[in-house]
Specification:
This protein is of the alpha/beta class. It has a single domain, classed as Rossmann fold (3-Layer(aba) Sandwich), CATH 3.40.50. It is built from 7 helices and 10 strands. A 7-stranded mixed sheet has the order 3-2-1-4-5-10-9, sandwiched between helices. It has a 3-stranded mixed sheet with strand order 6-8-7. Helix 5 links the parallel strand 4 and strand 5. The radius of gyration is 18 Å and the shape is globular. The termini are far apart.
């Protein structure tokens, strides 16, 4: 059955979640749109120590995959601001979340200043955004993330990171994503994604003004103990 027909049938039956966008714009998140968003929020809670009263900003919010999952977690006093260069996605979110006065959405290019105050955010989320950004834009996004964060605030970012283990897995054909040779900063991969040299990204995070950064490696290089496909970086302002 085509996705459009599935959307119609779901709407007729009353089963369609109003915060889940039409299938034609969902992409292909693991487990489906709702499950993928829930998985990210579980990581925000367990690794970035997100609490229910905190202020969250997400750069690259798309159609609200993470936002939807946060509606059931954030409590009184909390807020969510999502930004994305896709004006259609932002318009969809503004309509879908029109009854949530604590959720706000902004159309903005990656790295552009957001209409949010300095040091007014507790957690900035970059879930799946860095693999699609050029290095110069990634540095601008990191700098804007640091501007937004209050002292002690955290950055949660996912990326494909190249270290000796990752390069060996790629060379052996064991990596889930077959990236090409690195140019010293990044390596090209399929679907416009790329992997960053781990040391380069850690240096970029430090240049943006973060005090510390920790890495939880993902499953894309067949390492045990991964919590997600991509590597996870949590940095503290």
């Amino acid at each position: 059955m085509k996705r459009g027909a599935q959307d119609v049938l779901a709407g007729v039956s009353g089963r369609r979640d109003p915060l889940v966008p039409p299938r034609r714009v969902q992409g292909d998140p693991p487990g489906g749109f709702a499950a993928a968003g829930d998985a990210v929020v579980n990581l925000l809670i367990s690794l970035a120590k997100l609490s229910q009263e905190e202020r969250v900003a997400e750069i690259g919010c798309g159609h609200g995959l993470v936002a939807r999952a946060l509606t059931g977690y954030l409590g009184p006093g909390a807020s969510y601001d999502g930004a994305d260069p896709d004006a259609n996605a932002i318009a969809w979110c503004e309509h879908a979340y029109e009854n949530r006065i604590d959720f706000h959405f902004h159309a903005a290019d990656d790295g552009d200043p957001l209409p949010l105050p300095d040091a007014g955010t507790d957690l900035v989320v970059l879930a799946g955004r860095l693999p699609g950004l050029d290095p110069a834009i990634a540095e601008r996004v990191l700098a804007e993330s640091r501007r937004l964060l209050a002292p002690g605030g955290r950055l949660f970012a996912t990326a494909y990171l190249l270290d000796d283990t990752a390069r060996a897995a790629i060379a052996a054909g064991q990596a889930e994503v077959p990236f090409e040779a690195s140019d010293g900063v990044r390596a090209a991969g399929p679907d416009g994604r790329h992997a960053y040299e781990e040391e380069w990204l850690l240096d970029a995070i430090a240049r943006a003004g973060f005090r510390t950064a920790g890495i939880r490696h993902g499953t894309w290089t067949a390492r045990p103990g991964g919590r997600a496909l991509e590597d996870i970086v949590v940095a503290r302002a």
